[in-house]
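Q: Could you fold this chain for me?
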Amino acid sequence: MSRFLPHPIADLTDRFFYRANIRLKLFYAMLALIVALIAAINGAGHYIFTRDFLGYLNEQAQQRMEDLIPRVEQAYRANGNWDFIRNNPRTWFELMKPAIVEHSGAAPGPTFTPSDLTGATLRFSLLDANRKLVIGYPDIGPDARLRPLMQDDAIVGWIAQTPFENVIGAVDLRFQQSQFLAQIIIAAVAIMLAAFMVIRISGVLLQPLSRVARATHRLAGGDYAIRVEVQSGDEIGRLAQDFNQLATTLERNEKLRREFMADVSHELRTPLGILNGQLEALEDGVLQPDEQTLRSLKSEVDHLNKLVDDLYDLSLADAGALAYRKADIDLAPLLRDTARNYEEGFRKRGLDIVLRLPESIPLHADGARLQQLLNNLFENSLRYTDRGGRLELRCSLQQQQQQWQLLLDDSAPGVEAPALARLFERFFRVEASRNRASGGAGLGLAICRRIVEAHRGVISAEASPLGGLRVTILLPAGLPAPEATA
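A: Sure. Below is the predicted structure, expressed as structure tokens.
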């Protein structure tokens, strides 16, 4: 609406409503509604009074004029001119009184009704043939209704009726003024009631919103522990619940971010510190650049490369940018080749690998990413399983769900129940210490979850019947994906 106003006024109005609080906006909204209702009621009342009530009075006067014409014509025939009524108001009023007609239709005589309550008789005028006033209402306007009086097919006079709205006097004006004053009082009372209602409504509705607004301000300032008390089950209560959920999520994400930065810095500092110490020892001549020293340096560099590659893959997976080239493949040969590649490492640790696989495991998947998934799972078992244990790998088809179930069970040690739910979080490791001799960076299982989810599968962890950890993977059985995932 403000765009139709001059620019300075429009800008001032926009700034006012932009800066006004909700309570003031609610007050002005209710005030505008009340003013609009009062204006509509007054307009409708004026329209009804002008069109219907005054029209009704004028129609009644028109009917009385039709009844008056025959009596006036009869009186003219009896007297031959208008002198009998000129300056004789009594005769004029006697003529204007309508006779009571009996049910038989005959007029019994000079029996008359009571006086006219509509005031129509006061607005009648009798004119001669030249339209000169004989008797009656003198102020005949151009909008007066005229009816001729006939005698032997000649016009001998006229009856004029002045509309009701043209004769409104001082009493009617006082009545209109009193009505306007009453409307002003009603409007003032309505405004006071609106103000009272705004105060009451603000206490019920706006106070919870104010609490959410204050809590949001603190949340934006970094206070992720702030919570809002939920006092109702309506939209405001659901808003408070959603705010608390948002605050919980932000608090958790902030905690994960700090842990992530601490873990990354630690994982990078350790190999870099070892490399720096060995390089300084080489410069000082404490170490000789022999095969063992070079192999130790290369081991640290490989560890850094593995950490950087895992971080890169994980960041791509989180952003949905990790490339997948899916095709129809057979997972069984991939599982057997992976077990064969890790067989020597498991043998050196005194561990056995047991495979129970069907001849074929058809999938629509990215073979390279599944290879990365299997490598991470085999390395996890190789790193944590005690000597003398084993890893069992089984796969079966679940006909009803049309999916392959892949089970990886290893022997002791197991994982405590509280830690099972966090195994697939980045940088999470079961052991409390950061012992790099037995554990990696804690990114392998997090990458595994991203790969499985990209194949529309599910990965979970639970206690194994062998005493260690069971990892369960569910993948769609040979169902082509809708489109390649990037």
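A (continued): Residues 22-79 form the longest helix (58 residues).
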